[in-house]
Amino acid sequence: MPEEAAAHLRPRPEIKLNEVIKDDDIDTKSLQLGFGNQRKCEMSIFEEVLKRSMPVLEAEPNVLQLDKGITKIVGPVRGQYFDLLNILTRVGKPQKTTDDDVKLTAETPFKNIYTDQITISEGERILFLGDMIDGGPSSIEVLLLLLSLKLRFPKQVFLLRGRRESRFEWDEKGHSILLSEQLRKWFGEGNGIRLFEVTCRLFSVLPVAAVVDQKYWCASGGIGPGLTSPSSLSTLKRTAPDATTTGLISDVIWSDPMEDEDEEVQTTALFLHNYEKGISYTYSFNAVMQFLHSNNYHSIIRGVSFTDNRDMPLQVTKQSHNSCGRPWHYQYSCYDPGYRAHKRSPTKNFPVTLSLFSAPRFLSENENKGAIIIVDGSRIDIKQFTAACRPFVLPKLANALSWSLPVVSYKAASVAAALWDVVNPTHDDPLRRLNEKMRVCCHSLFYEECVWFPIGRIKEKKRIKN
């Protein structure tokens, strides 16, 4: 076997602490290159980055005031590391394409993304609207890179708390890979649980909202019944244990705009209980107009969970399954463009609410685009982008041997059962019962729990038959 080919089969070494901590500073480039090469990091790196980030985030107010300057607003990236690199290095920036770039893209499709230098020019800021983790397979990589950028550019990179930055562990019926799962996979069961608690404490000190250019109210959710101005949040303790479950901070993080059909039924209601999420409220067009008018704002810019749509079919038929046999939970979404412009203001002719989603080809089984918003004075631009190339990751971060073992066992049991039928054609025997158990196991594996993160698009595969 050639040496170059054999190198790809060797286990990739962990990123060492001395590679990242240089002259008492965190080298963001080393983290970017290491994670781009699909290397794990030492536990000491994770602990050190969180330890240094805690006081920096604690010093920030509940509501950030981002005044004059160019602000790039990024919606949920949901643990999709290579798409985050694409946002930081490519989207919204002028690109220089050379023959070398084309050759590099053809041979190593995602190498040029993670080797590009992450630069933030003077006067430019990047605001993340939360939901940075859970979903894609790279929550640790996304979290550490963003925190290291925060330490490197404390006055230019800003992170808000979203729905996912909480102690809740909800995984969209098994479709997402959770941060807690990845921590246990990388650092062991005991250390993973401990580090998840440390991470939750860091999440509790994240700011909850921002005002951009004195015109745009930015948050993960939006507004709540008790919110009249940014000062309503300034005196609240965001580190309280129940901050994300009850009260005004919870509303800013969890609330959603009302759908048109709800407003048609409840014409006078400003807020309704959010039955879809079971927490916080949904707010009406009139509630948004009152909030914007009283603060002289133009619009609310919010992050969105990709499942928040009414276009999803209530009943999934046998024909509406993806190539892995799983129902298309996200096939029809009003957020496929990466953003959604809600009702317009009658006076300014501008959407009073903009919902943003920045994780293209979410979970690698959707055809959605990602989008970011760039605010530059009186100008606001929406930049759409498609998914970056990404490596293939097995469900629940499993290795190939453990993931394929049930399939191999099922096939072996099927062959043994067929041979047994020839010798002793009975209807109740141990091999037949074993074969049935393996069939159920494989059915669960391929029809319910499979998550695909392929390089680029995957061709349509035939559904596995029993």
Strand content: 5-15%
Strand order of the largest sheet: 3-7-8-12-14-13
Helix- and strand-based class?
alpha/beta
Major beta-sheet overview: 6 strands, mixed
Shape: globular
Residue-averaged pLDDT: 78
Low-pLDDT stretches are 1-10, 96-110, 308-332, 443-466
Instruction: Determine the fraction of residues in helical runs and give it as a percent range.
Output: 25-40%
Q: What is the tally of helical segments?
A: 16
Radius of gyration: 24 Å
Count the E strands: 16
Distance separating the two termini? 37 Å
Structure write-up:
The protein has 466 residues and is of the alpha/beta class. The protein has helices at 3-7, 17-20, 28-36, 43-58, 81-89, 99-107, 111-115, 139-152, 179-187, 189-203, 231-234, 248-254, 260-265, 285-295, 400-423, 430-447; strands at 21-22, 25-26, 63-66, 70-74, 124-128, 157-159, 209-212, 216-219, 256-257, 271-273, 281-283, 299-303, 339-341, 353-356, 370-376, 379-385. Helix 8 (139-152) links the parallel strand 5 and strand 6. Helix 3 packs antiparallel against helix 8 (139-152), helix 4 (43-58) packs parallel to helix 10 (189-203) and helix 15 (400-423) runs antiparallel to helix 16. The two termini are 37 Å apart.
